[in-house]
Amino acid sequence: MAKALSRTLNLFQLNKIDRDLFTWTGESVGLKRIFGGQIMAQCLIAGYQTVAKGRMAHSFHSYFLRPGDFKQDIIFEVDRIRDGKSFTTRRVNAVQNGEAIFTSSISFQKREKGLSHQIKMNDIAGPEGLESEWEIRSKMKSQIPKEYLPMWLREREIEMRQVEFQDLLKPQKTPPYKNTWMQPAGKLPADERIHQALLLYVSDMGLLGTAVNPHGMNFMSKKFQGASLDHAMWFHSKINFNNWLLYQIESPVSSHARGFSRGSIYTKSGKLIASTSQEGLMRVWD
Predict the structure, then answer these.
(1) 168-183 pLDDT, tens digit each
(2) Which of 11, 20, 123, 275 counts the most CB atoms within 10 A of its CB?
(3) Domain tally for the chain?
(4) Are the beta carbons of 70 and 29 closer than 8 angstroms?
(5) Beta carbons within 8 Å of 280's beta carbon, 6+ residues apart
(6) Residue 29 lies in a domain
(7) Any catalytic annotation for residue 278?
């Protein structure tokens, strides 16, 4: 297993300090601040610690409230809202300095049969022959400002291959959509909860960036400030993230310094296994 993937999976190892209280001791995975996908995945894992076996998460809704601090532990508080015959509901808050930095509501369900349909996946080129994001960034490293190099060249836990090329150094106004093939940089354990958590982790990559596409900016633009405000994810089927998955993202609208995006995650064979949506801050300073 790649070191980067091993470090990321270690983020999901929480310490239990009481029946419904868990902690995590901060350690950077190469980013300047705690990544939103990390907090989401950790809240999902904390919720799972209080749910009966056989019940799997099917929906996750959350709000980002405050930036997290690597230098301090995060406390995860689980509120057992309801344990029903088929569904279980949990509220999970991530807390630092006595204040919530993130809040989430998660619904779990027993697997059951029922009516089934899905829309067809768009005709998209496969991952074969596409350069990975890391390969592209390595070729461009001599052009990158020193302040961005550590993040730019950090080892990736997920191999990502963009279908539509985007020049991060000279961003152009492009349509508000993005197609990305992705798979872990190593093999995941058989535990489906880990597959869900890692998919939730990576689902925070690209949603806000897609909303910025039509405006010719990105995260390196000096006047641009971006941040996730909320995030939702639905798991439609059993998740196997040891194979290539296609993440299709579109941003139908942005307004009032907020951009809205939604995503669909398909298997290579075209099965829709998860959906996402997010609203993010898109602020431009004078």
Answers:
(1) 777 889 999 999 999 9
(2) 11
(3) 1
(4) no
(5) 207, 208, 211, 226, 227, 228, 229, 258, 259, 261
(6) yes
(7) yes
